[in-house]
Amino acid sequence: MTVQELISWCIENDVSLETHIALRAKDDYLLTADKLAVGNPYFGNCNDGEELVSIIAPRTADDEIDYDNVPGFLILDTGRV
Prior knowledge:
By secondary structure, the chain is α+β, with helices and mostly antiparallel strands.
């Protein structure tokens, strides 16, 4: 997939070009449209991801992160488990 194809996919799927991107990969791989999704990644092993979520996530009345309403990420995934 080229950058232009990725941009076109985002436009066709109403994904803002301001959407944060998360990668799910264990090795190098070729990105294809079937490996794109919008959702909420798990950042258990990614300090930068947890830090970003703490900045962009809405808060509850108790000032806790409202994980149920975290904005979606564009997830680039290998599809490997």
